[in-house]
Amino acid sequence: MGYSTIDTHCHLDIIREQGQSIEETLEKSRKVGVDRLVQIGIDLPSSIEAVRISETHSTNELQISYSIGCHPTETHEFPNADQILDLAKSRIYDPHFAAIGEIGVDLYHDASTRFQQNDVLRKFLQFSSEYKLPVVIHSRDAFSDTYEALKEFKTKAFGVIHCFTYDYEAAKQFVDLGYYISFSGIVTFKSATDIQEAAKKIPLESMLIETDAPFLSPMPHRGKRNDSSHLPYVLEKMFSLRTEPNAEVADRIYQNSIKFTERKAYHHA
Q1: Do the domain assignments include residue 269?
Q2: Residue 218 is part of a domain; what is its CATH number?
Q3: Which residues contact 27 (CB under 8 A, 6 or more apart)?
Q4: Whose CA is closest to 252, among 217, 178, 190, 202?
Q5: For residue range 92-115, what is the model confidence (pLDDT) as tens digits?
C-alpha cells in the first residue's frame, strides 16, 4: 500500500534548469503519493522564485510551501542578507512560507569563509528567533560550528538539520537542541552506516525525509537526476531501519512534516 509523503526539501528550479519541467516533476510526484513539498531558497533570486513557484504551482492535490534563505556556499550573496531578510519579513503572514533557509556552515567546499558563514548564520538565526520561523540548516564538515551556533539560540530558534550526514551522537545533540533530523537519499547508500544508525536510534518524533532534488538520488537511481517522485525510496529505507510498524513510521514522519511546514518544532504539542 502506498503512503502519503511530504518532500521537506527540494529545488524545483534547479530540476527545471537540468531539463525537467516543474509540471512534469509535480505530476510524477503526485502519482507516488507526494502531496506537499518545500521549495528551498538558497539566495535572493531563488528565494524570490520560490515564492513565485508556490503561488503559481500549488494545487489542492500538491501544495508547495517554500523557504527563504542564503546557502553558506553562496558567499557572493552574503552582502544581500538584509534584502533576503526583508523578503522574508514581507512574507511572514503567508501560510505557504515554511522556513528560513537553507542557511548554515559548509567547510567542505571552502573553509576560508568560515567566519563569514558563521556571522551570516547567526544573523538568520536571530531573525528566526524573533519571528518564530523554523530554520533549514545545511551543515557539511562543520558539526562543531553548527552546533555551537544553534546552542547559542537554544529555546529561541528551532528547525531541521537537512540532509543529515553525521552520526548518531551528533543527531542526538541536535535533537536535544530541539531540531528535526531530515534524511535524504544518502541514507539508502550501502556505505552510509553512520547515517543509518542515526535513523535507527533517534526519536521517531524528530524525523523528517527529503530528496534535496535534483541532488542525491536514492538507490537504485544513484547518480541520476533526482526529483520528489523518488521520496518513497527514502521512506522504504526508514521501514527497514526502524522497529515500529511501517504504517506507524509513515504516519509519524508525515505528521512531523506537517508540523514542520506549519512552523512547529518536533516537541510542539
Answers
A1: no
A2: 3.20.20.140
A3: none
A4: 202
A5: 999 999 999 999 999 998 889 999
